[in-house]
Design goal:
It comes from Rhodopirellula halodulae. Pfam families: SBP_bac_5. This is ABC transporter substrate-binding protein. The protein is of the alpha+beta class and 780 residues long. Among the domains are: 105 residues, no CATH class; 111 residues, Dipeptide-binding Protein, domain 1, CATH 3.90.76; 97 residues, D-Maltodextrin-Binding Protein, domain 2, CATH 3.40.190; 227 residues, Dipeptide-binding Protein, domain 3 (Roll), CATH 3.10.105.10. Helix content is 38%, strand content 18%. The chain has 22 helices and 30 strands. The strands form eight sheets. It has a seven-stranded mixed beta sheet, sandwiched between helices. It has a six-stranded mixed beta sheet with strand order 23-27-22-26-24-25. Strands 2-4-3-7 form a four-stranded antiparallel beta sheet. The longest helix is centred in the N-terminal third of the chain and has 26 residues. The N and C termini lie far apart (88 Å).
């Protein structure tokens, strides 16, 4: 650039321009937006970081050089031809406050911004640099969609990049690019593109089938048939034939197994056959025939049970599977306006108006074996045994409630209560086993018995005559690797039911027309329960620091709910459920006025320091060594929801300077053995706080709390004479637990289950998956 080429609009600007020209010989000046010689260096991809601009190049006769200008308004954004007489007015990038002029005869060329982008794109495509070409092409598509050469650039990019990806065996990505090319420019080498799509889909299908991803393969094949109808795509006919051959092989295996009366194998192969080819001849009829001969239901579970106890508070798997083998004296059927609704499995009950007499009426003539063998004298002894302090079956709330137990004939038992009791049936959730009827202790009283355990598969087999022709002869629990794996198995037909869904999976799966998703009516309460003699965890101030140092809202909404809104899921301030909505009777024990503690890491650090100073002071007073802050071992059940939550908690506690060790519990376990961990992540079924409060907080409960305030609150609760007293004292207990923190409350989750619509009789208001298992039937 030279003084002969450029002049400014006024004298003041001209003086400024002279100063700028004087600076040009320096190295740093070459980085500015003009120069009096040479050409600007190619910035590469950094060009896209610049504001859009044009480049004017001057003739050598005029002094040479170049300037970077704001986009100029020229007809068609082209260099005029022929070159006009007169001058061109423009602004230099970086000196927008001044305008400059140059004579047209001194201008050698103008490099327009969009042409530069096109040139950069074409050069990169030619060199095979598709990663570098893509951003330039994207800007052209966005800002200059009507450029005449853009269509050619875009089609060349898609075609050549698809070829590169295919050579790298990126078949999915290559296919996506070719299909985009076909949609964008259907006239571009039509037959060649279709042939390439056919070859790619063939390779992709082979890749999916070899990996066992039949579901994805079928989805791809169905889409190809829909979108390429009449196009003679070679891969469609080939893979239809392949799937038919695989389906016929499975069907033949099913028929052979059926002939040998190997009904498990027959069921497996018949379902695999129609999964591979839903319209295979005789496929649906074969499935129905096998189901009619030997009804069998596969249930996908996150944990198989090693303990079988339908009354367990803290073990989902034990509670679920226990219901198949055992009945409970009073079984919870759902929630009512005043606590749970319970069914007396041996007959009916009645409570006197003053709530001080609770009567049980036995009706064995209405019962199925072995329950019809109930003995009123034996049942009275069981109830009395729970009152004896020396008995291993002693239950203090029942002992505190009952004054006398009497028999009025063999079919009526009267329990005289010390004071009015609002829900005596909740105090008598006793597992009924075969010993009640003269059998072996622990033997099943439900419809099923546990058969074989084969790795992650547990079979429960009907142990007597079926109640109905279609009652499942087997219920098979299959442990899935994750909740997502369970969803995949349900959609593929490998399982008929999922007992527990990730909340986000439940939202997504509810949109599937072949599956029914139902919420359990009672939420689970998630908490951290100290379970060792770790000195710091025994300190209330330190436990409060852990709560303030845990971003529970973020973990719940971000990690567990995946930013989806799931009504009823919320952070808690205490160990009781808050209900699913405002004024929900399910939340009768939860004080809504007590807000959960916020995430305040600075306060958490301060409280940790305070706890340490208190220990130092106490140690000095007793002339003992200051306790060491040892690593905290955090235990969790072996399923991915608990794992994800605990990994997030560990990360947040590490930010406080704590050393955290994660301990995964064995399959089927929900609480660590003594000495195995310091604090445990527990998902508890606190469905009846009026009785479960002691099971969670009491000295013999999960928390093992010996706190005097907690103990007083529990005793006052058990002395309640009416529902108003019970609710008021539960609210008091909530406040005490919020302050003393015998457990660290996290959140409540609305749990759900899902099942194929081919399975009938599951029910929609059940508190346990197998509540109606004897009524299940596969549609015919």
């Amino acid at each position: 650039m030279s003084r002969l080429v450029l002049t400014t609009i006024d004298a003041k600007a001209s003086a400024l321009f002279v100063v700028l020209i004087a600076m040009m010989p320096t190295a740093s000046a070459q980085l500015l937006n003009y120069a009096d010689s040479g050409r600007p260096e190619s910035p590469g991809l950094e060009l896209l970081q610049d504001e859009p601009h044009d480049l004017i190049f001057f003739t050598q006769e005029s002094g040479g050089g170049w300037v970077k200008t704001r986009l100029m308004e020229l007809p068609n954004r082209e260099m005029p031809n022929p070159v006009p007489k007169g001058t061109l007015k423009f602004s230099i990038v970086g000196i927008e406050q001044q305008e400059f002029i140059a004579k047209w005869k001194d201008i050698e060329n103008i490099d327009f911004w969009e042409k530069r982008l096109e040139r950069e794109t074409a050069e990169r495509i030619k060199d095979g640099d598709f990663v570098g070409a893509y951003p330039f092409l994207s800007v052209l598509i966005r800002d200059y969609p009507s450029r005449p050469g853009l269509r050619q650039l875009r089609t060349e990019f898609l075609w050549r990049d698809a070829g590169r990806r295919a050579k790298n065996r990126e078949f999915g990505a290559s296919l996506a690019m070719l299909e985009e090319l076909r949609r964008y420019a259907p006239e571009y080498r039509t037959q060649v593109v279709l042939k390439a799509i056919g070859a790619l889909t063939d390779q992709l299908m082979d890749q999916l089938v070899t990996a066992g991803n039949f579901e994805l393969g079928q989805q791809l094949l169905a889409r190809l048939e829909k979108e390429y109808r009449g196009q003679n795509l070679s891969s469609i006919s080939k893979w239809n034939a392949e799937f038919l051959a695989m389906a016929e092989e499975k069907r033949d295996l099913a028929l052979a197994a059926l002939e040998k009366k190997n009904y498990r194998e027959a069921r497996k192969y018949s379902r695999e056959s129609i999964f591979l080819k839903p319209d295979i001849e005789g496929g649906t009829e074969l499935v129905r025939k096998v189901d009619q001969i030997y009804p069998l239901v596969n249930v996908g579970v996150l944990q198989t049970a090693t303990v079988l106890d339908p009354t367990r508070l803290d073990n989902w798997a034990a509670r679920r599977a226990g219901r198949l083998l055992y009945r409970v004296l009073f079984e919870m059927q759902g929630a009512g306006p005043e606590g749970g609704e319970y069914e007396f499995i041996f007959g009916d009950t009645e409570q006197s108006p003053d709530r001080q007499r609770f009567s049980m009426f036995l009706e064995p003539e209405r019962l199925q074996p072995p329950l019809n063998q109930v003995d009123g004298f034996y049942l009275a002894d069981v109830l009395a045994d729970r009152v004896q302090p020396q008995s291993p079956n002693y239950f203090s709330p029942w002992a505190a409630a009952v004054q006398a137990i009497g028999l009025d004939g063999p079919k009526r038992i009267d329990c005289i209560l010390r004071r009015p009791n609002v829900l005596p049936s909740a105090l008598i959730q006793v597992t009924v086993d075969g010993e009640w009827f003269g059998g072996e202790p622990g033997s099943p009283t439900g419809d099923y018995r546990r058969d074989v355990v084969e790795g992650d598969v547990v079979r429960y087999v009907l142990k007597g005559k079926p109640r109905t022709e279609l009652q499942p002869r087997e219920i098979v629990e299959i442990r899935t690797e994750s909740a997502a794996d369970g969803v995949s198995k349900l959609l593929q037909g490998e399982v008929d039911v999922l007992d527990q869904l990730f909340p986000a999976d439940a939202v997504r799966l509810s949109r599937n027309r072949d599956v029914r998703v139902v919420n359990y009516p009672l939420p689970s309460v998630h908490m951290l329960v100290p379970c060792s003699d770790h000195v710091y965890l025994a300190d209330k101030t330190f436990r409060r620091a852990l709560v303030y140092g845990t971003n529970r809202e973020d973990i719940l909404n971000g990690e567990l709910l995946e930013s989806l809104e799931v009504p009823g899921c919320r952070v808690l301030s205490g160990p009781f459920p808050a209900g699913l909505e405002d004024n929900d009777p399910l939340g009768y024990a939860y004080d809504q006025s007590i807000a959960p503690r916020n995430y305040e890491p600075r306060l958490a650090k301060l409280l940790m320091t305070m706890a340490q100073k208190q220990m130092e002071s106490e140690a000095s007073r007793k002339k003992e060594e200051v306790p060491e802050l040892k690593p905290i071992r955090l235990a969790y059940p072996p399923e991915n929801l608990s794992r994800i939550a605990c990994e997030a908690i560990r990360s947040q506690w590490q930010l406080l300077g704590l050393e955290i060790e994660l301990v995964e519990l064995p399959v089927g376990r929900a609480f660590p053995d003594e000495g195995a961990a310091d604090i445990a992540y527990v998902s508890a079924a606190v469905w009846e706080p009026i009785i479960d409060a002691r099971r969670v907080l009491g000295p013999e409960g999960m928390a093992g709390s010996t706190d005097q305030l907690i103990g007083l609150g529990l005793r006052r609760l058990e002395e309640s004479k009416n529902w108003r007293d019970a609710r008021d004292r539960l609210l008091d207990l909530h406040a005490i637990a919020h302050h003393e923190l015998p457990v660290l409350p996290l959140w409540q989750l609305v749990d759900s289950y899902a099942y194929s619509r081919d399975l009938l009789g599951v029910g929609s208001d059940i508190v346990s998956l197998y509540q109606n298992a004897e009524k299940w039937r596969l549609s015919q």
